[in-house]
Amino acid sequence: MNRDDIFEKIQEVLDDALGVDEDEVTPNASLTADLGAESIDFLDIIFRLEKTFDFKISQGELFPENLTENLDWVSDGSLTDAGLAMLKERMTHVDFTAIEDGDRNISKIGDLITVNSLVNFVEIKLAG
Amino acid sequence: MRWLWIDCIVEYEAEKRLVAIKNVSLAEDVLHDHIIDGKPILPFSLMIEGMAQTAGILVGTTSRFKEKVILAKISKASLDCDVTAGDTVRYDATIDRLDEAGASTMGTIDRRVAGGDAWERIGRVELLFSHIDNNMAGTEFPKDNFVFSDNFKMILETAGLADLAE
User: Fold this and answer.
1) Which of A56, A110, A113, B51 is deepest in the core (most CB within 10 A)?
2) In this prediction, does ipTM exceed 0.85?
3) Residue closest to B145 by CA, chosen among B156, B131, B129
4) What is the residue-wise DSSP string for B146-158?
């Protein structure tokens, strides 16, 4: 399955999970900021990806979770250098460039998950 | 007291499927408040709740009711015809996906054909449940399992499934 095939299937997944039109699902669209996804939608998306691509997704593998539980990762509501390094290592499917030198408020971290992030994730899982 | 929208469990396959029955009666006030074209109709929202209770109990059995199972999302819901007093409705729920964060379920709604034992398919409902203590937002909730009250235990006991809640 090539990247275009994966993208098309992810369009269908997001259409079903979020009720958005397929033309809204562009590669750079943020799941939360642009497509209106809320935290419970992430679980829905995970289940639909598992079913569509026939693999298992572990908790915290696709979307960052419980960051605030580790004081080394979050300080005053913002991601620390250690937290960013951890996320970059664990979540290679996400592009963290936008927050490297800017606002690292953890409420904004979810905005970094784009349609492209999902395509990257699926590509990595299918290859692995 | 929680408002139950199923009367009894009639079938159970461990961690897979649960079927419940609802007998619709004019004794229920809600029907008198929902008259359409002169006919008392069971609101579809309450049928979705009936399916949510059926599927929610099924999901609850997978953790022996240790998890707080909360309806998080109605993924799809369709109903082909109205249900009125005197009708018997059957909710048939199956688990589609299940993990530590929650579950998704598929469900069908059937209505008993008047005067017989046959059933006709009248609706479908797909639901998403959260195990809220494992929610992705990290929000904390009370320790007591406020979801599965004594009413649910009564329904399990009536169906001979009381050991599932122990």
Assistant:
1) B51
2) no
3) B131
4) -SS-HHHHHHHHH
Residue B19, both tokens: 């079927």
Quick check: is B32 catalytic?
Answer: no
Rounded Cα distance between B143 and B120, Å, is 42
The pTM (predicted TM-score) of the whole model is 0.87
CB atoms within 10 A of CB B34: 18
Q: Please write the tens of the pLDDT for every residue from A93-102.
A: 999 888 887 7
What number does CATH give the domain A1-59+114-128? Answer: 1.10.1200.10
Whether B60 contacts B49, CB under 8 Å:
no
* B135 with A42: Cβ contact below 8 A: no
For chain A, domain boundaries: 1-59+114-128, 64-112
Number of A/B CB contacts below 8 angstroms equals: 41
Task: Select which of B17, B22, B34, B68 is catalytic.
Answer: B34
pLDDT in tens, B35-49: 999 999 999 999 999
The answer to whether residues B47 and B89 touch, using CB atoms and an 8 Å cutoff, is yes
Q: What are the chain B neighbours of A42 within 8 Å (beta carbons)?
A: 136
3-state secondary structure of B130: strand
User: Could you tell me which residues come within 8 angstroms of residue B112 by beta carbon, excluding any fewer than 6 positions away?
Assistant: B87, B88, B89, B90, B118, B119
Domains of chain B (ranges, CATH numbers): 8-147 (3.10.129.10)
Amino acid at B85: A
Q: Which alpha helices (DSSP H) does B13-149 contain, by range?
A: 29-32, 44-61
Identity of the residue in A41, A47, A65 whose CB atom sits nearest the CB atom of B104: A47
- Of B5, B8, B1, the closest CA to residue B159 belongs to B8
